[in-house]
Design brief:
It contains 8 helices and 11 strands. The chain is α/β, with parallel strands linked by helices. It has a 9-stranded mixed beta sheet, sandwiched between helices. A two-stranded antiparallel ribbon has the order 7-8. Helix 5 runs parallel beside helix 7.
Length: 238
């Protein structure tokens, strides 16, 4: 099956995904692999927006930020997402995919400001749009930014790329017999405190009926499999 079931998606990438095994910074080989997968999905006619985290450089709630003012630390994290967005844009354009970076923090020499109608127009023209800078506000994660932007552009679903193959009742990397959910409701995620996305992001999706597909990014071709309707990962819905 190669017919996409989604017309427009928002792909949520963690900063760690771009660092791969390096643990810090950007792994060039890995970022080109991700860009190739995005280019492949775009060739199906799917409109793609991306929100990328900044954890491979700096995270406002990380241990190294413990002594810092939370607002300053979060602003540093937002700038880290801009670095990642520019790296991803470069990799995508080397795959001949027209890409625009829109930042929630104005930096006109580097990226466009986030303007909702402009972002939708880019998508309609077949461009990939990368949203950087989170929501532009401290105390909100890039998961929340992904939920917010997905609703603003009227995406059909959020594709949450992780290092595990779905939603589990415990960390499968630490608990051998952790149970995987093929499908789970927003309320169950919130009640169980599952670390799918933070509670603000899940609540936003719940209130607006936006499905979330959680899948393993490390298995090549999974983005395409999700978009074409294969049973990959876990579905979070009503």
């Amino acid at each position: 099956m190669t017919t996409p079931i989604f017309k427009r998606i928002l792909l949520k990438l963690s900063g760690e995904a771009l660092a791969a095994n390096q643990g810090f910074g950007v792994d060039t080989a890995r970022i080109y692999e991700i860009a190739a997968e995005v280019a492949d999905v775009r060739s199906l006619g799917v409109q793609i927006a991306i929100v990328v985290g900044g954890g491979n450089f700096f995270r406002g709630v990380a241990e190294q930020a413990r002594e810092m003012d939370r607002v300053s630390a979060d602003h540093m994290g937002m700038l880290a997402t801009v670095i990642n967005a520019l790296a991803l844009q470069d990799a995508l354009e080397k795959q001949n995919v027209f890409t625009r970076v829109q930042s929630a923090i104005e930096m006109n020499q580097v990226a466009e400001p986030f303007i909702r109608r402009r972002a939708i127009r880019h998508l309609e023209k077949g461009r990939v749009v990368i949203f950087a800078g989170g929501t532009g506000n401290p105390y909100f994660s890039t998961d929340t930014a992904a939920s917010l932007r997905a609703m603003e552009i009227k995406a059909d679903a959020i594709l949450k790329a992780t290092k595990v193959d779905g939603v589990y009742d415990a960390d499968p990397l630490q608990v051998k017999d952790a149970h995987k959910f093929d499908q789970i409701t927003y309320m169950d995620v919130l009640k169980r405190g599952l670390k799918v996305m933070d509670s603000t992001a899940i609540s936003l999706c719940k209130d607006n009926g936006l499905p979330i597909v959680v899948f393993n990014l490390n298995q090549r071709g999974n983005i395409r499999r999700v978009v074409t309707g294969e049973k990959v990962g876990s579905l979070v819905c009503a």
